[in-house]
Amino acid sequence: MTYRVCFVCTGNICRSPMAESVFRARVEETGLDGLVEVDSAGTGGWHEGDPADPRTVSVLEANGYPGHHAARQFQTSWFARLDLVIALDEGHLKALRRLAPTSADADKIRLLRSYDPAAGDDLDVPDPYYGGMDGFEECLELVEAASPGLLAAVREKVEGRVV
């Protein structure tokens, strides 16, 4: 049975596609790609069908990750098929919880940086859209820092299903 993870930011062109690409690479590196499905979406549909922001693609590719992507908007109906919904900041967390049809669905939503033990109290991944390349590089650093903890949590769930 496939374990499904969806990363969610605002427009699905910066943070969430970056998190999707990084986490998919981690899943593949550990041999879980047959058991874990990774995707992303935005809370809004402004960029539906668009590729990731060119700065996102540049930072991803410069660090060895694929940059291909098509933006889409998160749909309430997806909760039924998803196991984990990863919000990139507190605003996304609140928006997703408002969309969740049941309390069980709301329990599937987590902040990405909650998986980074060094994150401290600020669990938001800042939106790099209105800034320069340094914001996109910081975004990648934050995503990469949270990925091992998220991978460990997902692996535990997947292995629990397989046993």
Automatic annotation (TrEMBL):
Reaction(s) catalysed by this chain's protein: O-phospho-L-tyrosyl-[protein] + H2O = L-tyrosyl-[protein] + phosphate
GO molecular function: protein tyrosine phosphatase activity
EC number: 3.1.3.48
Superkingdom of this protein's organism: Bacteria
Keywords: Hydrolase, Protein phosphatase
Active site: C9, R15, D127
Domain Phosphotyrosine protein phosphatase I residue range list: 3-153
SMART domains: LMWPc (SM00226)
Family the UniProt entry places it in: Belongs to the low molecular weight phosphotyrosine protein phosphatase family.
Descriptive protein name: protein-tyrosine-phosphatase
Species name: Streptomyces phaeolivaceus
